[in-house]
Amino acid sequence: MATPLSAERQLAALRTEGVKVSEHRSWRTHNRNHKGAWGPVHGVMIHHTVSSGDDSSVALCYNGHSALPGPLCHGVGRNDGTVALVSSGRANHAGSGDGDVLRAVINETALPPANEANTDGNRHYYGLEIVNLGNNKDTYTRAQYRAAVLWAAALCRAHGWSERSVIGHKEWQPGKIDPRGPIEGGGSFSMTQFRADVRAQLATKPGSDPTPTAPTKPTAPTPAVKEEPPVPATKVITESVPASDRLPAGEYTLIKLAKDTAALQGPCTYVVTAYATITGTPGTRVTARYHDLPLATGRPSLDLPIDGGVIGPDGTLNLSATRNGGLDAKEQLRLELRADADATVTRRVLRALRTDA
Length: 357
Known about the structure:
By secondary structure, the chain is of the alpha+beta class. It is built from five helices and 21 strands.
């Protein structure tokens, strides 16, 4: 068991490791501790923001949005390699995940596949959101990646953990894909490689670089970088569909979340949460899953069930299901629900943040 670091101890550990930090507003006292316990902590978790723009992403992670109040993490990895601190307490970043994964992190053993969402992760993990669209096209800068390694190593060193206490969001919660995407200079974001880089950092003295600097031949001047076009602004979407749907026992049923059935149509990156009220026999278990539907083939890419609940004694269940990711131009995001016994969906609300590609 590990007691969470105080704000001052966290700041000292990061600076000692060589992390360039910026302190955002009242990050020392900004938390969700009133919604649940903070600690014991067992590891650190890496995410991408599904957004672009450093300042706006830091503000988003500090404030949250209508579907998920902030703070949404502890640190935000800016493109220049600075980590903006937005919380030192409980934060809405991990959500519910697999208890078997948490046990593996605690024991620092090999991670099992994440196939359940039965354990509160916000209580047990520090979270870093790296500014990136997460569409597998947006590139992490080398400075961002290096800062993330240092951030993870600093917290592991402070608690006496090895690199096995470092996980990606996709290794914790079924249906998540973060972190993903290309890294400047080559390669894609791999948690196996990321842990290896944290291990190398932990093998050095704090603040040092484990990579030896070799003499290099003179190179031609670097060509000027072309100015990138402005990135489209993030849009907030809220839709409600009042009509009811029957859920036949044991079958996944497509749920209408917007006028055209699909939750979202690409091209875009997104964070989406669907809320549904289900009525039925008390004790009936309900699960949810999203899928991407390429319109050209009509063959959906199915996720594992990501959220669930049990209809209560009053015969109702209020369920929410969150997903982040990206859609190509001719892809749709859809939601399906499954109940163990016949049930009915009586209310549906879709809330999303989307950035058009």
